[in-house]
Amino acid sequence: MKKSVLSVLMVLMLVLAGSVGFAKTSYAADVSAGADLVSAYVWRGITFNDGMVAQPYLDVTSGGLGINVWGNMDIDDYDDTLDSGEFSELDLTLSYGFSMDPVEVSLGYIEYLFPAGGEGTREVFLGLSMDLVAGFSADITGYYDFDEVDDYYINAGLGYAYDFDNGVSLGFGAEAGLAGEDASAGEDGGLHEYLLSVDCSYAVTEAVGVSAFLAWTDNFDEDVLPDQDTDLFGGVGVSVSF
Hints:
CATH architecture: Beta Barrel
Structural class: mainly beta
CATH class: Mainly Beta
Largest sheet: 12 strands, antiparallel, barrel
Order of helices and strands: HEEEEEEEEEEEEEE
């Protein structure tokens, strides 16, 4: 276990060092960091912790190339099934995005690491998004886990965003997931979960922003996604850009 945690920390340090170097050597690089305090950790409709979690992140982008480091630290112990105050997951993402007007294309690679225990895994993804009319947008992203799971997951969504003149932005979203048999949390593949969300953000300064969100998620079919401990969850966050 100690070797596993040490390996994860070494990888994280290398990525962070590369990100900083990438930002310094490229005048067009954008760097942002932040953290969200969330009432539960829910991913693709699955409850990984029904209590409070902290989720820090770092983003570095330049010329369509992006590096992201994201972590989940469990504040609650989920009925003594988790160790509170420890990172249970670290995700490292390398992505590239470009425009094929009117469609925006993104593709990339995700490394999932679990320093508290569990086998890590890897995904590649391809996403398409486009603006529709009057603040509406649509997107679809396909993921393929080519390591531990060896199956696909597809997420499609519709969103609406409105920017007020005072720096406040308001957004609404609706999305649904489709999972292969091995990628689902149940016995069968098919429509996995849906999620409805509302979010609000405020630009405190040009570099600092605060945000909040509220979301509801549930399954389509218990054979694809069994009933979970969390349906309603939300959180607040702060971000800083450099």
